[in-house]
Design brief:
Chain A: Its main location: membrane. Chain A: This is Phosphate ABC transporter ATP-binding protein PstB. The structure holds 2 protein chains of 2 kinds. Chain A has helices spanning 56-62, 93-99, 114-125, 131-144, 148-151, 164-176, 194-207, 220-226, 244-249, 254-260, and strands spanning 16-27, 30-41, 45-49, 73-81, 84-85, 100-103, 182-186, 212-216, 229-234, 237-243. By secondary structure, chain A is α/β, with parallel strands linked by helices. Chain A has a single domain (9-260), classed as Rossmann fold (3-Layer(aba) Sandwich), CATH 3.40.50.300. In chain A, the strands form 2 sheets. In chain A, strands 6-7-8-3-9-10 form a 6-stranded mixed β-sheet, sandwiched between helices. Chain A has a 4-stranded antiparallel β-sheet with strand order 2-1-4-5, covered by helices on one side. Chain A is globular. Chain B has 2 domains: 3-184, no CATH class; 232-482, MetI-like fold (Orthogonal Bundle), CATH 1.10.3720. Chain B is built from 16 helices and 2 strands. Chain B has helices at residues 3-28, 40-77, 89-109, 124-130, 141-178, 186-226, 229-234, 251-282, 285-300, 303-326, 335-360, 363-371, 376-405, 408-413, 431-439, 448-479; strands spanning 238-239, 247-248. A two-stranded antiparallel ribbon of chain B has the order 1-2. Classes of the chains: A alpha/beta, B mainly alpha. The A-B interface holds A 64, 66, 69, 71, 94-99, 101-104, 106, 108-112, 120-121, 124-125, 160, 171, 174-175, 178 and B 284, 362, 364-375, 378, 382-383, 386-387, 481.
């Protein structure tokens, strides 16, 4: 019994950034994602919610082909970025990941200086022609990551020496330094305290001006606070997808209602 | 009664004690084991330990003290006139011991009474030879009688040892059984004993290291009393003369050691690192599970076999194809030979440790890099290797200390000529080779020419110890990074 994703009329009016059609994911013999179709809009925060193990992180990792690094993982169906199939053999996953950046659940700064952490992506992709340009990119990214004021005097200090919340904002700044078009965030606040969470959420809201942001979260309050669209996953199925306000106040599927009222999950 | 039979009996008594103690513990509380402080098994262990440990300790002490006592008494019995020409008491005593063993053997054949042998009447030497005891000279009556009383004292000693050990075991068995009470902390006692055993085991390792260092230090001290230390550390020639007046400069040797080790690391580090990167980052789990043990087989080859390989294959090959055509030398043993072969030996040390260290770099580091659009090789070069670098350096230092202490390969591959040269195709020698050559052979053990081996050993030990400490320090510092 599959529910077709519930579409809002407004979806058609804005630009579609990513569109998945009949996406299936298998880990060996396990069918982890079952026939998920979803359209993610540009300049919007989309939240994926659902109980643990429902496949929301797996689906997120399909969007920038991070699942390629897992040997037993197999993806079927189409995922289009700006109308282009990202699983087409012509597409280099490395180039794709420069366009679709990712922030992980646990802050993972490289054991390098703060400056080198940010400059890592721009250096690889040759975004700066000289040191001055690189300096500029680093400063701009740190400012957009809302961490510039805290680290501007110690750019040579190791990134691993920062606090958990600072590390996560550093990782977000690192991700936006490569000028991605989409930013995927896999439970970016689950390792953070409420104050750091608030800072990151504020940051996400600002990022919406320029990027399409997809965030996986376990906190329904967080989804309600930061996102405009919400998708509810359950046991590998996309149960319901629509305007965040609509999902939380007037869910159509009984499973969604049970989850957001705390009866399952 | 022989010692092994005695030990078996003591352990048997202890086992009986175990069974009795469990019963007694239950009897003390009228069969309700909940009223006991510990489970019944612990009361059994308590009595077992109380029976076995003191008796075995008594035996141990006895077996150390008895020979000393007997030898001092027998030594007094032998008059100086009985010493062979130029001989010493220790030599006579070893004869006495061998004759006494021979007497036992004669007794065992049952052909004659050992006590009745008379040095003047029979040819004792021939009799001994008949039972497999070879003697260097004919046996004088004094020595024979000393051997006979030596044998008698040993038998008496063994008899009393059995009595005392069994008495101790029995006394402690009965004593500990009668001490069993409901509130006795039997578990704590037996657990403390195990704890003491574990501590003792670790002390053995530490005490041995300490003993080795101390013996090196003492002999080195003797050496420096006979030979000026300035010459040892600063002289550029190594030329031992067993007539005396030798040059014992340590610089040519340490130069050879460092040169060979350097060549070995030049071979081992790049190859080992590339193997580690391949295994950790690219190889699939199946290939890895086969390849890693296969490479580690290299570490299991005895170094003497590597030495043969250097001597028979690599040395002549380098001489015929490189050294002679280029006019750089015509010796098959050379620094390059030993270095190359030692490098091969060190590959698994570098690769296996580095592989573990690269694997320990968290996957989240790699994910972070891939997520930014880095390729796998960029990720390895710029994220994984820098993160693993301290550990890899530690692995390399461990390999270096192996190389410095390596002996067999250099004995067979590098030659024995102490030279200060830069030409890698010339024969050179190392500290370890010279230690071997100074200590083997019939030489007096008090001349600077032999004692220098201890000074060399101590220097080498200091080198490898420093490298090991440095490696440990670096590895430990690295470990703290992700925890």
């Amino acid at each position: 019994m599959f529910d077709t994703p519930h579409r809002e009329t407004s979806v058609d009016q804005t630009e579609i950034k990513i569109s998945a059609r009949g996406c299936q994911v298998y880990y060996g013999d396990t069918h982890a994602i079952k026939d998920v179709s979803v359209e993610i809009e540009d300049k919007t925060v989309t939240a994926f919610i659902g109980p643990s193990g429902c496949g929301k992180s797996t689906f997120l990792r399909c969007l920038n082909r991070m699942n390629d690094t897992i040997d037993i993982c197999r993806v079927e169906g189409d995922i289009l970025l700006d109308g282009e199939d990202i699983y087409d053999p012509k597409v280099d996953p490395v180039q794709l990941r420069a366009k679709v950046g990712m922030v992980f659940q646990k802050p993972n700064p490289f054991p390098k200086s703060i400056y080198d952490n940010i400059a890592y992506g721009p250096r690889i992709h040759g975004l700066a022609r000289n040191k001055a340009e690189l300096d500029e990119i680093v400063e701009k990214s740190l400012r957009r990551g809302a961490i510039w004021n805290e680290v501007k005097d110690r750019l040579d200090a190791p990134g691993t020496g920062l606090s958990g919340g600072q590390q996560q904002r550093l990782c977000i700044a690192r991700a936006i330094a490569t000028e991605p078009e989409v930013l995927l965030m896999d439970e970016p606040c689950s390792a953070l305290d409420p104050i750091a969470t608030a800072q990151v959420e504020e940051l996400i809201d600002e990022l919406r001006q320029q990027y399409s942001v997809v965030i996986v979260t376990h906190s329904m309050q967080q989804a309600a606070r930061v996102s405009q669209k919400t998708a509810f996953f359950h046991l590998g199925n996309l149960v319901e997808y629509g305007e965040t306000g609509h999902i939380f106040t007037n869910p159509e599927d009984p499973r969604t209602e049970s989850y957001i009222t705390g009866r399952i999950g | 009664m022989s010692v092994s039979v005695l030990i078996t009996i003591v352990l048997g008594l202890a086992a009986i004690g175990y069974v009795l103690a469990r019963r007694r513990a239950l009897a003390v509380v009228d069969g309700d084991s909940r009223k006991l402080h510990s489970r019944t098994g612990y009361y059994g262990q308590f009595v077992f330990l109380m029976t076995a440990v003191p008796a075995l300790l008594v035996m141990l002490v006895w077996l150390f003290v008895q020979p000393v006592l007997i030898e001092s008494r027998i030594g007094g019995m032998i008059p100086e006139s009985a010493f062979p020409e130029g001989g010493e008491l220790t030599l006579v005593m070893s004869d006495v011991r061998r004759i006494s063993n021979g007497l036992d053997a004669i007794e065992a054949t049952g052909q004659g009474a050992a006590a009745a042998l008379d040095a003047t009447a029979t040819d004792v030497r021939a009799e001994m030879a008949a039972v497999g005891v070879a003697l260097g000279s004919d046996v004088s009556p004094e020595v024979l009688s000393a051997a006979q009383s030596y044998r008698k004292m040993q038998h008496t000693g063994a008899f009393w040892l059995s009595i005392v050990a069994l008495a101790t075991a029995l006394a402690f068995l009965v004593g500990s059984l009668s001490r069993i009470r409901a509130d006795q902390r039997a578990r704590n006692i037996s657990e403390n004993f195990v704890l003491a055993l574990l501590i003792g085991a670790s002390l053995v390792a530490i005490a041995t290291t300490l003993g080795i260092v101390l013996s090196l230090v003492f002999e080195t001290y003797h050496f420096f009393q006979l030979y000026p230390w300035q010459d040892f550390f600063f002289s550029l020639t190594w030329n031992p003369q067993f007539r005396g007046g030798s040059d014992l400069g340590f610089i040519p040797l340490i130069w050879g050691t460092l040169y060979v080790s350097f060549v070995a690391l030049i071979v081992a580090v790049p190859v080992g690192l590339m193997i580690a990167i391949y295994l950790a980052e690219y190889a699939g789990p199946k290939l890895r599970s086969v390849a890693k043990p296969a490479i580690e087989v290299l570490a299991g080859i005895p170094t003497i076999v590597y030495g043969l390989f250097a001597l028979i294959t690599v040395g002549p090959f380098l001489r015929d194809w490189i050294a002679q055509p280029m006019g750089l030398g015509d010796s098959s043993s050379s620094v390059l030979t030993a270095g190359l072969v030692m490098g091969i030996m060190l590959i698994p040390f570098v690769s296996s440790l580095s592989d573990d260290i690269i694997n320990a770099v968290p996957q989240s580091m790699r994910d972070g890099s891939y997520g930014l659009g880095a390729t796998q090789s960029e990720t390895i070069k710029q994220v994984v290797l820098p993160a693993a670098l301290p550990g890899v350096v530690g692995a390399i230092l461990l390999a270096a200390s192996r190389a410095i202490g390596e002996t067999m390969i250099v004995v067979m591959g590098a030659g024995a000529a102490a030279k200060l040269s830069l030409n890698p195709l010339e024969a050179m020698t190392t500290v370890t080779v010279k230690i071997v050559s100074q200590l083997t052979g019939d030489t007096e053990f008090a001349s600077p020419e032999t004692l220098v081996a201890f000074a060399l050993g101590l220097t080498l030990f200091t080198f490898t110890l420093a490298l090991n400490v440095l490696a440990l320090f670096i590895v430990r510092k690295y470990r703290e990074q992700y925890e």
